[in-house]
Structure formats: structure tokens, C-alpha cells
Design a protein that fits this description.
Strand order of the largest sheet: 2-12-11-10-7-9-8
Radius of gyration: 20 Å
Structural class: alpha/beta
Oligomer: single chain
Order of helices and strands: HHEHEEEEHEEHEHEEEHE
Number of strands: 12
Distance between the termini: 53 Å
Largest sheet: 7 strands, mixed
Mean pLDDT: 90
Shape: globular
Helix content: 10-25%
Length: about 350
């Protein structure tokens, strides 16, 4: 007899699929490949050693998880020119983080920061896939990482696709203005403003990959259930591949690198130095690769839980949906081999490459 969960899933997904059916994987591969997006045709439900023994079984979703497996999720990402992730030390937040009065997220939102859309019309045509310079929206998220500051009122901000973090930002309107004028203005590149921002510093994020998992339970319970499961399974997969996993941002003051503000030279020379640091971070000779896995607030598409964003030092961001522990191996392969699994793709920023190159190529 068909279970209630199975019946509800098939009924809901059947209606959604009629309205907006998902294309076949073969069609997706052809479509993405035609736009020079590096894809793999391997099946997404990839498990290296399928096994029925209890100790090796993947964690399954509970009966209340009704996931949309039928409708088209490619294109369910709203383009943005930058995305910020604000330290909170939490894994769940108010339903609308940008409307929580007195928070840095709300102060940033009130500033209505927007990008300057590029006049270049040669960007990708696939829905949900975009170049950051073609977008005008600032995406504002809360993250589970704690501030690296000794002062709890000063936050540590991750900025993508720049792949940098900014420390000592006040959780006030003034702090939001400092962040906007010194680091987020659309005219600014990775080095930020050439006018010193008193008390703040910015750094290259010291990881080979950053993985964001939507855990926003108050927005949708599915994400609150999915994120911890995915964190465990992704940690196991990456550690099995020899990676070191962190769930808190390492204090940049304890690292060997200097702050971006302390890089000497002209604006062009500083940008070149930052590029070299990012390339060095990805050098194959790096003995131990490290990934940062964080929970984050709502990123849209909760009906496609689990929702995952993968950022790399190359300035790329891959958005996956419908990720369960079964697909953790595929996510790991995306990180380690630089190819996208089309069946999981919701969208992405700066993910086109020259023919034959992967996301790990510059």
C-alpha cells in the first residue's frame, strides 16, 4: 500500500510538474554545455559504495518532509552582484532577517545598496545562471559563524563572490554604512575602498571552499531538518577525500597572511596581489585542503530542500537544490573536480568557463 507521504509527494509534485515540468537531465547537460558551463553527465544520486548495512546507510528524510521533486528548479535563484553573510552564532533566525529591527541585516537592507548593471549582453542565457557584474541586487544573509572579534557587538562578514571576510563591523547603522562605502559599493573591486575604514580589516577567506546550508527553520521547517543532516554527510564525504572541515571562521589575525588593507601598491597592483593570493589558495600543492561549512538564513526555494551553495576562491558560486545525504558525494565531487551535476542545479554565479575547463580552472 502506498504510504501517506508517498501519496502526498506524488500528488503535489504531479500538479507542480504539470505547471512547470523539470527538463530531462540529458536536455540540461546539452543546454548547460552549450553555454560553456562545466557539467558532468554522471548520475546525481551517486554513492561510491552502496551498502544496506545499518552503519553505512544514508540518513533519510523524516515522513513530514514533502519535497518538490518534479517541477523545474533551474532559474529559482535571483541574481545578485554580491552576497553578504553576517556572523550571528545561530542556526535559526526571525522569519525575515532583514526586517529584524536593530540588526546589521536590517540596517544594510535599509541602505538599499544596489549594483551597477554591466552593459555587456553576452552573459549566460540559462535561467538562474548569471555573472555578478550583470546584477544589481545585494543579497543579505545571516550565518552560523561567530564573530572573530573579542567584542560581541562587532561582526565578521563574509562577502561573495569576492571571497573575502571583513572584521570588526559594528552592528549599527554606522557599521552598515562603513560596510557599504568601504567594501560593498558596486564601484569597488575586491580590494575595497582606498580610503581607510577606521577599525575594520578585510582578508581573503582562508578555505578552498565555503559551503552554505540553508537551516532557516522559522522560514520553513524542511530547511531546519535538512541542514544538520547535510552537514554531517558532507563532512563525512569531504573528510574521506582528505579535506579538513571547519564550522567556524578562523581568526584571520592568527594566520600568516596580511590584511588586504596592508597590501602596498596602486589599485591595480593590489588587485593583482589579491588574485595571486586566491590562486595560491587553490594550488594543487596545498597539502591539506580545508572547507568551511556554515548554516545560513533563507535563500529561497525551500520546497527544493536541502539547499546548498558552494563558493570557491575562483569567484564562482553553485546553487544546488533537492540535496539529500544521497547526493553528498555528488556535492563533494563538484568541490573536488569542478563539474556541475545538472539535476541538482538551481542556478549559479560566475560559473561559465572556456571549453574544456572546470570550475577549478582560472
Amino acid at each position: 500500500m502506498q504510504s501517506v507521504k508517498s501519496f502526498l509527494n506524488s500528488s503535489v509534485n504531479g500538479v507542480l510538474g504539470v505547471v512547470n515540468p523539470a527538463p530531462s537531465v540529458d536536455n540540461l547537460v546539452t543546454q548547460l554545455d552549450s553555454e560553456s558551463i562545466p557539467v558532468t553527465s554522471n548520475p546525481c544520486r551517486e554513492c561510491p559504495d552502496p551498502c544496506d548495512e545499518d552503519e553505512y546507510r544514508h540518513e533519510e528524510w523524516p515522513s513530514q518532509m514533502l519535497i518538490d521533486y518534479t517541477s523545474d528548479m533551474l532559474g529559482s535563484v535571483k541574481p545578485y552582484f554580491r552576497q553578504v553573510v553576517i556572523s550571528t552564532g545561530k542556526s535559526d533566525w526571525e522569519r525575515e532577517v532583514t526586517e529584524a529591527r536593530g540588526t546589521l541585516a536590517a540596517h544594510l537592507n535599509d541602505l538599499s545598496i544596489s549594483g551597477r548593471k554591466s552593459s555587456n549582453s553576452n552573459g549566460p542565457k540559462t535561467p538562474g545562471v548569471f555573472n555578478s557584474d550583470s546584477a544589481t541586487r545585494l543579497s543579505i544573509l545571516n550565518g552560523s559563524h561567530r564573530t572573530t572579534s573579542e567584542d560581541a557587538s562587532k561582526q565578521t562578514i563574509l562577502v561573495f563572490p569576492d571571497y573575502k571576510m571583513i572584521t570588526e563591523i559594528d552592528s549599527t547603522r554606522k557599521g552598515a554604512e562603513t560596510l557599504a562605502t568601504g567594501y560593498l559599493d558596486s564601484e569597488l573591486r575586491k580590494a575595497g575602498s582606498d580610503q581607510p575604514q577606521i577599525g575594520t580589516k578585510s582578508w581573503i577567506i582562508p578555505y578552498q571552499a565555503v559551503i552554505l546550508l540553508c537551516s532557516h527553520k522559522r522560514r520553513d521547517n524542511k530547511c531546519g531538518i535538512a541542514a544538520p543532516v547535510l552537514k554531517r554527510s558532507l563532512t563525512n564525504e569531504l573528510e574521506s577525500a582528505g579535506w579538513e572541515i571547519h564550522d567556524q571562521v578562523e581568526d584571520p589575525e592568527c594566520l600568516d597572511d596580511t590584511a588586504i588593507e596592508d597590501i602596498p601598491g596602486t589599485a591595480a597592483e593590489r588587485e593583482a596581489a589579491i588574485e595571486e593570493r586566491l590562486k595560491k589558495l587553490c594550488d594543487p600543492s596545498v597539502e591539506t585542503k580545508r572547507a568551511l561549512i556554515l548554516f545560513c538564513s533563507h535563500i529561497g526555494g525551500h520546497k527544493f530542500a536541502g539547499n546548498v551553495i558552494i563558493y570557491t576562491p575562483h569567484g564562482s558560486g553553485v546553487w544546488y537544490g533537492r540535496v539529500s545525504s544521497h547526493q553528498s558525494h555528488a556535492v563533494m565531487k563538484t568541490i573536488t573536480e569542478g563539474k556541475i551535476y545538472p539535476a541538482l542545479l538551481r542556478g549559479g554565479v560566475n560559473i561559465t568557463r572556456s571549453k574544456g575547463k572546470t570550475l577549478l580552472d582560472w
